[in-house]
Amino acid sequence: MRRTAVVTGASSGIGAEFARQLAARGYDLVLVARTEPALTALAAELTDEHQVRAEVVVQDLAAPDAAARVSDALTALGVTVDLLVNNAGFGTAGRFAQIDPGQEHDELMVNVVTLVDLTHVVLPGMLARGSGAVVNIGSTAGFNIGPHFATYASSKAFVLNFTLALWSELRGTGVTALAVAPGPVRTAFFDRLGTRKAAIGGRMITPERLVAAALRALDRDRGYVVPGASNFAMAHLMPRRPRKLVALLGRRVTSAVADALTPR
Ligand SMILES: NC(=O)c1ccc[n+]([C@@H]2O[C@H](COP(=O)([O-])OP(=O)(O)OC[C@H]3O[C@@H](n4cnc5c(N)ncnc54)[C@H](OP(=O)(O)O)[C@@H]3O)[C@@H](O)[C@H]2O)c1
């Protein structure tokens, strides 16, 4: 039986790689993002190389009704969603008061609100069928307090905790959830952020390696995964308490990013 995966943020980086590796596993794809030419080119590539159905949904996921619009598009396409990859996201960094509030609002809409809304769209059908999965892309930034990445790190902490809560709730239903927490990955992420200095700690890995590790973790129903040994160590060995000391030390580590992006 054919299976369909919806991948958000499929126009570049990690999302495009999820689409490629899922197509190689035989999934039909629905590719969601704003950049239509990139989505259309990827859809053609996937159909050519893997003989799968690949559809494109052009949608700004920061829009308040984004999930409803994607849901309508899925209905119009006659698609049953077996796998949702909530990958679309971006970061903001620097001294909080100097960051554009509109950008941070959009960041929370994409990284958090639409991720939750889309999960609501697909879960009832998955539960009724007794199968399916939701993969949410967090970050190692979500394991700790993130001065100079206050909104981004907090959005990814939400993704990690939300997904593990779902994973727990869904036990025994045939449906599952996985949080993927990448360290630095070689994509356009840091160009969009404005500085590669933000890639603090951990080893830069390729999207290919990241997605392969994520899909292995999904096969094994791991709940969450931090691909790359040094990223895993960073995420788990950094002390969490005392929380104020962690926050103060974090500020020192990220001060170069703050100076580069939001000079005093
Ligand atoms: N690269 C890293 O080091 C790293 C580390 C940890 C976590 N992550 C996470 O990994 C995910 C993917 O990032 P990436 O590294 O692959 O970066 P990327 O190459 O910049 O890709 C980001 C994707 O998100 C989409 N997106 C952003 N804003 C959107 C919006 N308003 N509406 C719809 N789509 C939107 C972009 O599509 P359009 O611009 O075409 O809309 C693009 O496809 C993100 O959630 C990011 O936070 C990345």
From TrEMBL:
Q: Which InterPro entries match?
A: KR_dom, NAD(P)-bd_dom_sf, SDR_fam
Q: Does the keyword Disulfide bond apply?
A: no
The record's Pfam families line, in alphabetical order, gives: adh_short
Alphabetized UniProt keyword annotations: Oxidoreductase
Coiled-coil segments? none
Q: Where is the Ketoreductase domain?
A: 3-188
Q: Show which residues constitute the signal peptide.
A: none
Question: What are the protein's GO molecular function terms?
Answer: oxidoreductase activity
Q: Domain of life of the organism in this record?
A: Bacteria
Family matches, as PANTHER family:
NADP-DEPENDENT 3-HYDROXY ACID DEHYDROGENASE YDFG, VERY-LONG-CHAIN 3-OXOOACYL-COA REDUCTASE
**Into which family does the record put it?**
Belongs to the short-chain dehydrogenases/reductases (SDR) family.
- Tell me what this protein is called: Ketoreductase domain-containing protein
Q: Which organism is it from?
A: Goodfellowiella coeruleoviolacea
